[in-house]
């Protein structure tokens, strides 16, 4: 069965460009993003990994570690770094898992329907990982899952935006509306009475009885 939001992210050990990693231990006490790409030395993946390298500081600011994965061997990941830098101007400094035996890919359901059993003799169309993203919280639970097809590069700013929302809503009894961005008004959750809303948030606006908005809480 596939992994769902609120499942504990499966733990694993793997070879990475930073040496062996024990996943839960590596996460530490912060957040983590585990994201897969189909294959090294391919155009969309090159732009994706470079984009993530450029955003690494933004993830760090939010106490989020990032780790990439494909079924290519670690040695190939290392060889690919120069191309990523040439194409995007960013050096990949986060670890990349070399999941040659597809262990993590299977554990996280990252393979497309009809995938093979090993990475031997594969083509990108068969047993390559799809473009999956798992955001994992400090409690080791899965907070967000995304799956994109081979032809469509991901918008990693959206991952940051969603993390901003998840970190805010983990602290305060609020939710964030469509297309919300850091600093914009938020929604007061149904669990908060009108009386309590005044105490907690000061002023708020009632748009509908079940849609109350207030300024983004700080702290
Ligand atoms: C790409 O990243 O461009 C790509 C990956 C797998 C198959 C085809 C293209």
TrEMBL record:
- CDD domains, A to Z: PRX_1cys
Q: Name one GO molecular function term.
A: thioredoxin peroxidase activity
The annotated active site, in chain numbering, is: 45
For whether the record's keyword set contains Oxidoreductase, the answer is yes
Q: What does the entry list under GO cellular component?
A: cytosol
Q: What is the protein named?
A: Thioredoxin peroxidase
Q: Which organism is it from?
A: Mesorhizobium sanjuanii
**What does the UniProt keyword field contain?**
Antioxidant, Oxidoreductase, Peroxidase, Redox-active center
GO process annotations (BP): cell redox homeostasis; cellular response to stress; hydrogen peroxide catabolic process; response to oxidative stress
- Which InterPro entries does the entry mention? AhpC/TSA, Peroxiredoxin, Peroxiredoxin_AhpC-typ, Peroxiredoxin_C, PRX_1cys, Thioredoxin-like_sf, Thioredoxin_domain
Q: Name one Pfam family in it.
A: AhpC-TSA
Q: Which domain of life is it from?
A: Bacteria
Q: Any idea where the Thioredoxin domain is? A: 3-168
Gene3D superfamilies given for it? Antioxidant, Horf6, Chain A, domain2, Glutaredoxin
The record's similarity note reads: Belongs to the peroxiredoxin family. Prx6 subfamily. Belongs to the peroxiredoxin family. AhpC/Prx1 subfamily.
Transmembrane spans: none
Q: What is this protein's function?
A: Thiol-specific peroxidase that catalyzes the reduction of hydrogen peroxide and organic hydroperoxides to water and alcohols, respectively. Plays a role in cell protection against oxidative stress by detoxifying peroxides.
């Amino acid at each position: 069965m596939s992994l769902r939001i609120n499942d504990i992210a499966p733990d694993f050990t793997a070879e990475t460009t930073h040496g062996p990693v024990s996943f839960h231990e590596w996460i530490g006490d912060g957040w983590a993003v585990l994201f897969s790409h189909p294959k090294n030395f391919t155009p969309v993946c090159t732009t994706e990994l470079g984009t993530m390298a450029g955003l690494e500081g933004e993830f760090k600011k939010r106490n989020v570690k990032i780790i990439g994965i494909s079924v290519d061997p670690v040695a190939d990941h290392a060889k690919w770094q120069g191309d990523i830098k040439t194409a995007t101007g960013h050096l990949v400094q986060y670890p990349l898992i070399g999941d040659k035996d597809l262990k993590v890919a299977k554990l996280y359901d990252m393979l497309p329907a009809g995938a093979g059993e090993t990475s031997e003799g594969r083509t990108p169309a068969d047993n390559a990982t799809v473009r999956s993203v798992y955001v994992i919280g400090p409690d080791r639970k899965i907070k967000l899952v995304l799956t994109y097809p081979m032809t469509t590069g991901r918008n990693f700013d959206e991952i940051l935006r969603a993390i901003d929302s998840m970190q805010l809503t983990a602290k305060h009894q609020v939710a964030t509306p469509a297309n919300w961005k850091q600093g914009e008004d938020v929604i007061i959750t149904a669990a908060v009475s009108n009386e309590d809303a005044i105490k907690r948030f000061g002023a708020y606006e009632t748009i509908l009885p079940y849609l109350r908005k207030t300024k983004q809480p700080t702290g």
